[in-house]
Amino acid sequence: MTRTSRAVVLEEFGKPLQLRRYDVPTPQEMAALVRVEYAGVCGTDLHLQSGHLPIPVPVGLGHEAVGRVDTLGPGLTHDVLGNELAPGDWVSWLNNIACGRCRFCLVEQQPTLCTGSRRIYGINQSADQWPHLSGGWADYIYLQPGTVLVKLPEAATPQQVIALGCAGPTAVHGVLNEVRVRSGDTVVVQGSGPVGLAAAMYAQLSGAKKVIIVGGPATRLELAKRLGVGHVHIDVFQVADADERTEIVHGETDGAGADVVVECAGVPSAVAEAIDYARPDGAIAVIGQYTDHGPTPINPHLITRKNLNISGSWGFGARHYLGYIASLPQLVANFDIGQMVSEYALEEANSALADVKSGAVVKAVLRVGDE
Amino acid sequence: MTRTSRAVVLEEFGKPLQLRRYDVPTPQEMAALVRVEYAGVCGTDLHLQSGHLPIPVPVGLGHEAVGRVDTLGPGLTHDVLGNELAPGDWVSWLNNIACGRCRFCLVEQQPTLCTGSRRIYGINQSADQWPHLSGGWADYIYLQPGTVLVKLPEAATPQQVIALGCAGPTAVHGVLNEVRVRSGDTVVVQGSGPVGLAAAMYAQLSGAKKVIIVGGPATRLELAKRLGVGHVHIDVFQVADADERTEIVHGETDGAGADVVVECAGVPSAVAEAIDYARPDGAIAVIGQYTDHGPTPINPHLITRKNLNISGSWGFGARHYLGYIASLPQLVANFDIGQMVSEYALEEANSALADVKSGAVVKAVLRVGDE
Amino acid sequence: MTRTSRAVVLEEFGKPLQLRRYDVPTPQEMAALVRVEYAGVCGTDLHLQSGHLPIPVPVGLGHEAVGRVDTLGPGLTHDVLGNELAPGDWVSWLNNIACGRCRFCLVEQQPTLCTGSRRIYGINQSADQWPHLSGGWADYIYLQPGTVLVKLPEAATPQQVIALGCAGPTAVHGVLNEVRVRSGDTVVVQGSGPVGLAAAMYAQLSGAKKVIIVGGPATRLELAKRLGVGHVHIDVFQVADADERTEIVHGETDGAGADVVVECAGVPSAVAEAIDYARPDGAIAVIGQYTDHGPTPINPHLITRKNLNISGSWGFGARHYLGYIASLPQLVANFDIGQMVSEYALEEANSALADVKSGAVVKAVLRVGDE
Amino acid sequence: MTRTSRAVVLEEFGKPLQLRRYDVPTPQEMAALVRVEYAGVCGTDLHLQSGHLPIPVPVGLGHEAVGRVDTLGPGLTHDVLGNELAPGDWVSWLNNIACGRCRFCLVEQQPTLCTGSRRIYGINQSADQWPHLSGGWADYIYLQPGTVLVKLPEAATPQQVIALGCAGPTAVHGVLNEVRVRSGDTVVVQGSGPVGLAAAMYAQLSGAKKVIIVGGPATRLELAKRLGVGHVHIDVFQVADADERTEIVHGETDGAGADVVVECAGVPSAVAEAIDYARPDGAIAVIGQYTDHGPTPINPHLITRKNLNISGSWGFGARHYLGYIASLPQLVANFDIGQMVSEYALEEANSALADVKSGAVVKAVLRVGDE
User: Which of A146, A194, C33, D308 has CB atoms 3.0–4.6 Å from A167's, for a disulfide?
Assistant: First the structure.
């Protein structure tokens, strides 16, 4: 008897998402079928829905998820780290498959900049084409050969893994690979959404002496404090003036400015502010400017005068995703990240999106399975 | 009989420079008296004269010069590289003495960011105070103990050394220390003044396959071509549209963008343009934004999207100055940099400044001595 | 009618190679059949023949080659850099296919350290298994899907490309990726075989002021001089005492020691000598120790005392191979590398191996085709 | 009335130290007189006494100490970080004054490699020459102009500061500046003396997931466990076979080898063992090979094969010393380093040296003052 799976599908830009039902395919060679248990809702999903990004519709959404192996295709016996796989195992996977053949994959070894045909689950795979189930907001997802599939460590619960589903690897890329946080550094993190909180956690795990979070609204900063994330919290709604915020940052750093600033706010003006926060010879990671809002006023004199180093960081690839998975035991031993999550049923996907848009929740997660 | 020395002094901001005469002092312990032969005129001198920088007046100008040792103070027997010194030796010197005691001198080891009492010849030493002769636009200059004094290599003529007096070490800092040019790279240099030409030379010496100079006016680009500096020359007066320039740069790089962009133009908008020129994962050195012209529109999305690395580079210190001096044999073997120079008599300092301001010359040099 | 191809096969360790004949297969999807024109003979082939390396026999040898496209399998239309491919095009290819799935491929992004099932043409593909033609010492080679295949640039002749077939990408890895040669540096290269000469060339292209080659025998150093490779040449047969060589190196560097030392000699004691050559705070690339000869006496105190940086460099991957191909126009514009080559017919493979063993030639190349 | 000060003086190599008495000098311009409270005994002192190092005798020993300002010379009003100084303030100081003028001070910015006349308190200042009191094993020490003098942070007690007097800055240099420990790394530290323990602490503060200490004797490892330093402890006296130790390390790292190895053992063979411990593409810091014991067998093939990065690290300079001082609040919040110390009276200097030699204590400290 053929099994079927629900899937939340974006059929038309700007319209509510629809629940569809597809037959569950049998995995071909080196592919896998996974029973989704938890799937994250991300700021990017808002941009997808609104039509700001050039994707095909209809598309089954869901680019961050965890689940249990249902069926392994012929030949697929181990995850990418060499762990044996069996039905029932908890797994997660990198949401994109870089082409592995273009200049950026081969020569620059920066697959996040892949210019070939990069497949992204929940984003650019048409729901109308086989295997249909290519998004995580569904009962089942079909993982193509070449997917970076990894068994979850026992130290972390699936809820914890999904809490930083996209944010964790994004922060690994920016904070552990693009800039260097040294033991004893003072770090400013701009933004208190999932990426900002993850960046602050990695800065603390890297030995930062003081982490200053500049974000909001108050509920998010309260959560940060409860989690032990950040030592100083500046609420941009309470301290609405950028100069005043800069003054506070300088006051917290003995007048010197921050050793490292990690921009995770997404607001263009945050980059100008980061330049003000940084100390001479300091480093800035720009990891939050995913969306093109056009130019913003920035003073280039300060880049020269302060001898700054500014590093952009785009998305994440296998090394960052596996870095995130590897860091989970340390992360959850230090921060109770499950508290970030607000759960919704699969049928509530539209509400979940609305709550992410309004900032009512920090991290919306669809609770798909029964566990 | 007491000797006297002429000195060109800025007495009042915005007013013509005056020729004064001072007694020539006898050097104290570890100090040196140098007979100036050539002294450069630099864009910074324009800013000093106009009063844009917070300096004391009256000040004897001239922060780049070469000359011959007149008298060595007791204890001063060798230059900083261990070469013996004697009267008559051709020498040059770093124009600033960092404090050696502040956080940036000691902990960060970035003395160009020195926050202590950094003395700068020809810029912040009052002409009214002993030893009066603290600028290079004079017959004699008094070099304090602690000055980074270095004997000139025989391979280069003094005229060649002064041709890139400030520009050479500035480019060493930006091109050799802040970014990395690899053999085979394509490099864009913005600006065709002395710093731009020096940056292009160091990029070529570092193995750049193609150097694209974006500058002007035409006379400067003609000089660059004559010197063999740059492989492609884009005249900003002829190609006045930034988008068109970007298109040319991309065309010259197989559509990829430049591996490295070195901003030496000083115009704020050049930084936004550098971001457009760079390839994904490329590097940008911002070494020309010395003056604060305030904010300019820059699109921060591109920093994230292109995973760029942007490095500011402020001035130069001993390591860069000595790096410049060490590079002279290679520089002059490849580029006839003496051609950059237009000579003026010491009395013609005001004309020289005017010609620098109008762009009529690439590098104005005061011919002080008789050799 | 079925075509057949000759292939030089190692059937038994320590025995002469045999000429076999196989049917020429038709390429499957994404595969390619290439008509070999030139194939290099490498020191590694000696180790393969003698049985020092754990490979399956029989194996068709030849892990560096260039040729012309004979037939493209379905779907294969472009090389990895996006150039269109057609029968008759001159091409070359990376000799190994990393698994793309192990920790070193995915997380560390060091595919040369791949611990998965890495296929190497001419080394670990059994000649008894289809497609049989998996080595370059043959009329035809069958390139599997996933091979890093690249069209040759017109600026270099195929003879020039093969001259540094393995040596070029090995040197790119060591000299351009593991250490940094700065404009003005003094570099010692140990070894004057193909890898040593290639390392010296890249050091010169990177702006090294002085390159000192420590090698031999005299014929190789003479060739180096003819090619303009190296500025100082020390013959280890004439200067047989290591201390004396060290003294010469220090004499050539004003007593300071070399900024960078690149070990390409393969003799274990060369590493101890490299440590003596290097200046304090200098860098050493160890790229020639391919074979395990066991321990050699090295003084670890000098590593601490001189604050050295020592970088090992193992083989080459796609980024280094494509880096080599990209550098060819610059390489051949500066060095007439075709002069390194001594040609042999395919039937003379055993003689070629013998001449490589005796050091009678610098670079033996099998001239397979007719062009 | 003239005050006098006791000083422990090494008069003759290989002989017991003598207690002398000198007049206490008045500090000249920019100098300082400090009342010593605690002075550390270091392995180097053993080498000094035995005559293994080329120093002048008689010399007042003591190159690591803390104390309180007694008298400030004219002009000395602030420490190097800009804190105001007054008599009675707790201070410490870098034990060496680099020349600031040689190639390594100026060009390479590696003052620990200073080749000029570097003055070292307690090591190369003759006790027979004024001001006589140039070592820390004395009631008073005279600090020359140019000494890197720093006020102690209130968060740490003077006993804690002296516990890692030399070891702390040595580890800062090696662990924070020469290699990079990333959050999540597994780190092996060889040696469990003060340098080894300090290295392990900085690795943990930098986010190392697992720190494996290979050292001994058992008492030192017990102390490490009590302090929470290291997660796995291998006793070289119990596990006397190097291969067995390597097997344990690989077992603790899932067979991969360590990401970073920090050699702090001083035994030459430790470097060969470090190479065995390291994972492919791993990093090794060689910071313990202070003494020249001559060559040891090392297999250079592994450097190439494993693509290793090996960094030597010599002593410490201002940036490392101030880095240590800055890290004290974090250090003592995590590790009760005062437990490392065994106190002796100034008159017991010979016993203290003997106990350091026998390994009976981890860190011997002379309790000079009354506090």
Answer: A194
